[in-house]
């Protein structure tokens, strides 16, 4: 079992930082700020920053540096739409703690690859019935509740969102993580925690792209979690 999943199942409210770039400096900043895990990427263009992440071959050296540089669990988004079996099998041999993909892009064969835990991201098309079904798929251990449609990215958290997350957490029935599709702030932590979610995943909309800012915002979220 992955260390991050063990942490959640042990009752800790988890904090993941999705790195804006595959950067050792950013990874260290997140760890020093109090992140429980970080997430790196391959083969995608980030929606908010338009930054492009390359293949495993292109990114391997920096990913190995990150894995060596930090002690906290490191998760991997291996692709957006096109998952390459050979590449993901090679990545599974590296010491990544968990893998995270949108459920509608995650190939069924990935459920049999690696010893990492698997996080499936549910997008805005998921209703409670689909979330319930996702929670019953063998080999899916966690969900990323990416339920906000693109036109809502970067807007403040609202009460409807909280109701949506609460019902989603109940339907999924396993550890569920809320990502910062809204512009989440540390002051939002008590309300988010009250939904029953197992943790938060903060990215560029909440932590920015500068390592100093990543450290400061991660620290602010960690302190808010400790107070809540």
Please describe what this structure looks like:
By secondary structure, this protein is α/β, with parallel strands linked by helices. The protein has a single domain, classed as TIM Barrel. It has nine helices and ten strands. Strands 1-2-5-6-7-8-9-10 form an eight-stranded parallel beta barrel, surrounded by six helices. It has a two-stranded antiparallel sheet with strand order 3-4. α2 packs parallel to α9 and α5 runs parallel beside α6. The relative contact order is 0.17.
Summary, kept brief:
This protein is of the alpha/beta class and 228 residues long.
Q: How many E-type strands?
A: 10
N-to-C SSE string, H for helix and E for strand: HEHEEEHEHEEHEHEHEHH
Q: Kindly state the mean pLDDT as a whole number?
A: 97
Task: Please identify the top-level CATH class.
Answer: Alpha Beta
- Domains counted in the coordinates: how many? 1
Biggest sheet: strands, sense, closure?
A: 8 strands, parallel, barrel
| CATH topology label | TIM Barrel
Structural class estimated from helices and strands: alpha/beta
The Rg value, from CA coordinates, equals 16 Å
Spatial order of the strands forming the largest sheet: 1-2-5-6-7-8-9-10
Low-confidence spans: none
Named at the architecture level, the CATH assignment is Alpha-Beta Barrel
Quaternary structure of the protein: single chain
**CA-based shape:** globular
Q: Please name the fourth-level CATH homologous superfamily.
A: Aldolase class I
Q: Helicity, in percent?
A: 25-40%
Strand content bin: 15-25%
Number of helices: 9
**C-alpha termini separation:** 28 Å
């Amino acid at each position: 079992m992955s260390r991050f999943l063990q942490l959640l199942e042990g009752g800790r409210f988890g904090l993941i930082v999705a790195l804006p770039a595959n950067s050792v400096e950013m990874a260290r900043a997140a760890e020093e700020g109090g992140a429980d895990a970080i997430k790196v990427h391959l083969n995608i263009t980030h929606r908010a920053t338009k930054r492009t992440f390359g293949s495993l071959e292109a990114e391997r050296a920096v990913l190995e540096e990150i894995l060596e540089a930090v002690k906290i669990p490191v998760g991997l988004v291996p692709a957006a739409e096109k998952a390459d079996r050979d590449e993901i099998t090679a990545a599974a041999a590296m010491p990544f703690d968990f893998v995270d993909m949108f459920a509608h892009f995650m190939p069924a064969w990935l459920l049999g690859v690696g010893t990492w835990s698997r996080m499936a991201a549910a997008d805005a098309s998921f209703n409670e019935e689909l979330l319930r079904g996702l929670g019953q798929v063998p080999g899916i251990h966690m969900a990323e509740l990416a339920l906000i449609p693109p036109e809502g990215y970067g807007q403040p958290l609202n009460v409807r969102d909280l109701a949506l997350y609460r019902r989603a957490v109940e339907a999924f029935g396993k550890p569920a993580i809320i990502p910062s599709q809204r512009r989440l702030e540390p002051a939002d932590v008590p309300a988010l925690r009250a939904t029953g979610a197992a943790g938060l995943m903060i990215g560029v909309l909440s932590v920015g792209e500068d390592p100093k800012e990543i450290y400061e915002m991660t620290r602010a979220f960690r302190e808010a979690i400790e107070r809540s």
